[in-house]
What we know:
The chain is of the alpha+beta class. Helix content is 34%, strand content 20%.
Amino acid sequence: MATNPKHLEALRVELKKQNLDGFIVPLTDEHMSEYVGDYAQRLHWVTGFAGSAGNGVVLTDKAAIFIDGRYTIQVVAEVDDTYIERHHFEEYPLFKWLKDNTAKGQRIGYDAELATVSWEQLAAAAFEGTGVTLVAVDSNPIDAAWADQPAASLEAVYGHPEEYTGKSAEDKRTEIAASISEQGADAAVITMLDSVAWAFNVRSKDVLNTPVPHAFAIMDANEQATLFVDERKVTSELRMFLGNKVRLEPRTAFYTELAKLGAEGKSILVDAASNNALVYKTLRDAGAKLVEGQDPCILPKARKNEVEIQGSRDAHIRDGAAISEFLCWIEAEAPKGELDELSAAAKLWEIRQKREILKDRSFDTISAAGPNGALCHYRVSEETNLPLEMDSIFLCDSGGQYLDGTTDITRTVIVGTPTDEMKDRFTRVLRGHIALSMTRFPKGTPGMALDSIARRPLWEIGLDYDHGTGHGVGSFLAVHEGPQRIAKFGTMVPLEEGMILSNEPGYYKEGEYGIRIENLVTVRPAESAEGRDMFEFENLTWAPIDHNLIDASKLNETELAWLNTYHATVYEKLGPIVDSVTNAWLKQATAALG
């Protein structure tokens, strides 16, 4: 268990000082990020939960954490229910739990910098008539209780060259300015870290595995812009890169500048999904006219240009060579009985580091043996580390941050001999992966409409998986990028040309093994006999899919043809750039089946 009851005690002392009966603890930062800097890992500090999504609440006499289906096993391992109740957020939502465990007259705090306006509205509606008051705190009580809270990163901000971005920051500002004007606003507030990084063509190392700077921005309809960043992170090279149309201001001046815009009566474009509630409050209280709309960077960022697409293709070739060398090594070494999850992850990173223009991992490698593979977002540690045993499944989900692209790939392999059940489940996951890969769809189709295609082979025998089938991916940016997504309950945003997504169906048997097959794809136009605008997926990821887990008799002719063509292309692309040992292994690993 990672739960530290002393942390709960310290927080409750601070709640009493602020005259609060409870406090809501989200896993995000002031930028509404999924992955946050160490200073913002408040949910982990309070509960011990190390996953990437969840919410908690602490009252004076009890506490609870709320997670989704990806973390139902992990939360049991990390959160001690002696001190903190554990709940699935759909089965027992946070607001319902709070209403069941609070009384009239009580005050429940939250941090407006860690909440959106839409969340505030939902919370207000949930507690209407209960007599419970929700209080936006002036200072976060966790920060006061957290004695050794890490400081925010001071990594330097640097420019990302146009040879990788495909478009200058000046051209991006011109397009964004036009979008702001069209919506009747004088300026837009940009707070999402990857939006800021994309709009200004800048990068940093302020968030683990995600090359973004901690910065806010205000972009004007006249093509001027202000970047709010800690001055200790600014170099003379950055000033020259940004040019004279970008004003640099201290990060601490951001809310003061918002108040100034409000006092001037400006019309400001704000995004209820990405701007925190304090942004709204500051502007509204100062007199600004709020124009609600989407962050003007989100869709342009998601629609990769040809330079970015080619960069992703190139990055995936180098990455595929690294994965192939790793899989070759695993097949040779794992049967000797000396490998474990940590040594496997270390070897993969050693191999990947040999590739050109690699800057970082794109997320913590999921190196999961046997039962740990059933934890969708497992993170290996000294305490959880398992050996790779004979006749067991090993799942490895990993990625790299290359200057020209972000990769994310999952391969599942058998060490020894699989059971018939393992082969059946793996083959069903593969069939779903192939079905989605081959899907053609009309322009205007959202990812949600495609999700069931990948699930059908599992649904046929009453099985499923508790995560989305595909997430968006950035270009040397966030490995999880919106708004594109393929999921049961995903966004209704249509998939567009140039968007990059994952294709990753899976199956997880608690206590035994996990299976996932993940490639990245990009959306491109498809030919249409009837003249309707159609799209299809271009595959970006190239690495072998384990023959030993495939029951070829359960693949139809079309599926088998796809697999054999895919493997032939893997060898064609990777064979010339891997070493001789890996080449010999790769030739066998990509041999035609059937």
